[in-house]
Predict the structure.
Amino acid sequence: MPQRMWAMLTIGLAITVSVLDSSIANVALPTIAGDMSASPATAIWIVNAYQLAIVMTLLPLAALGEIYEYRRVYRVGLAVCTIASVACALAKTIRGLRLALVLQGLGAAGIMSVNAALVRFTYPHAMLGRGIGLNALVVAVSAALGPTVASAILSVGTWPYLFAINIPLGVATLALGW
């Protein structure tokens, strides 16, 4: 039981990081566009870059998880997402931010693509519904909290802090996942 709790904490933290990134960026678009003097048409590609990277690589990364081990894809995805968060926080141009978000989306896809498989191997068959339900709850709460977290951060800091919060979360989750 304690081992399962640690595993679900790790899985939950990683999926939280990847889901929060999507909803946080949506709230910050006007702020980021203003700071970088970007048009609305250009700024929307901040969110699109992240989402498209996830959508395009979700299935191939799930297949890689099947071939090379789910935990390996998960760890690499989490590491890429964390490193890309540093690049997002340090981005000085809209193009640099979009490129960093594509990289972050690739990392998030690595996390999301094997998430259900990791839950499946964490819970015995008789308790699988509980694990999937808990995972769905974490995803829903993360998506709902994203705008609130973004607003709270933007009320006291600048937009790079939106991406910087992923760094300690990502490092802690990597440590737990190892």
About this structure: The longest helix spans residues 2-35. The chain has a mean pLDDT of 92.
